[in-house]
Amino acid sequence: MRDICSSRLWRRPSWQSRPGGLPAAPLTNCAAPPALYSLYSMLALGITHNSVPLAARKRGCALYAVSSKRQPQTPQGAEGGPPALNGTRSSQAEAALPAQQQQQQSLELGGAAAAAPPPAQETGLQLHYRTSWERPVLHHSINGGEWQVVEMQQVVSGNGWWKAASLDTAASSAGSNGSASAPQLEFVVTDGYDHWDKAPDGGNYVIQQAGRWQLAEGELAQAERPPVLLVSDLDDTMIGDDAATAAFTRWWQEEAVPAGGRLVFNTGRALDLFQALLVEKGDVLAQPDMLISAIGTRIYAKNRRGAWEEDEGYTASLGAGWQLEGVREACYRVLANVGKDAMHFRPPNEMSEHKVTCGVRVDVLEGVVASISADLAASGVAHRLVVSGSGGWRFVDLVPRQAGKLQALEYARRRLGFAPEHTVAAGDSGNDIDMLEGEHKSIIVGNAHPELFAWADARRAAGTADELHVAQAHRAQGILEGLQRWGFKA
Ligand SMILES: [Mg+2]
Hints:
By secondary structure, the chain is α+β, with helices and mostly antiparallel strands.
């Protein structure tokens, strides 16, 4: 096996370490003593500050990291110096990279979003890596080809522990140094500075076949269950029982994420109300990899700075045929007929450029829906009308025809790269019916509103309920029950 130390990508680090585990054994084919390497490493990096203890960042072992007060040094023979990762960082590993590999690294790291890569396709390889390192770098060779680098991306719903990289092993044929018997993937991981995670025997990690793999505490394992894209409603589905939410989050982070799972919340809440919920339930609720808000009228993903960033392409797609003022005027006309005691506009924070929401008393609901629909049809406004809620009042949401919980789910599914058979939607109320109706699998939690059970009964009677699971368990426990039913959970 070819060791990366002989690949000329590396200067010898002062220490090797495994994040969260014991320090790896020293490399046997690098002869200089550690103290000399330490001095060499510091000189090569132009360190102006002493090394600092990093016990807080690592679990179970005392390690040292280079202070951030470093001066990146242009490698000998390189022109203009190495590019900083995303313009914010340089490192020993980068400084040692040949120009061609630096260029490839820049390409691989391009794009504004920090979304973790989609799950491995049949010919690809996906690696999940459990680490406290903020930006681990995967140094790898595919099919014995040239060594390359790629920064692993944070999986947002992995609670900060899981980073991931997807590699197309089929498209990467063996390089000049490769052979037909070379492993699909040979790799080590670094923290981007001078800490390495190598295999327990001191060599490189080796994966012999494509698929989904996870590396934690020095152990490589292949995923046993298929990856799932879970698209879940929030109120009274994912939340409402903190113990159940915490149980889901535990399972999600320990088992679903390293198997390639991704989490999307699909809620009627606007972004500010969702963020308030994240603060309120931060100790039990998983962060989603994407957020669909306000009845499928906005989609957000986290950017590299950790802020929720609107998918402007999706928002822009909602404009065709939609007339906000026309919708509001149609609602005003009906309100004038039924009276303000039977209908009202919801507060401004529940409205948006692409969403008008009214509260309507149940006894006039049917007439109100018919009148608004007829009015908008006559004026040619392309809209979608969604009724939800329980008790004596209902929410009536009007959104563009291109919006809605199902339409947004499909958009997120394609962006995250999941097939319908690996996608599960979960909900509890009338505004979830839309997304529960897609080609994917669905879960109705046991505490759902009567309208959902009635809808499920109608699906069964029509023979179209094969992909629908009505859970006995409530809220997040109902989601876990459904995921087990669909084979995504043991
Ligand atoms: Mg709900």
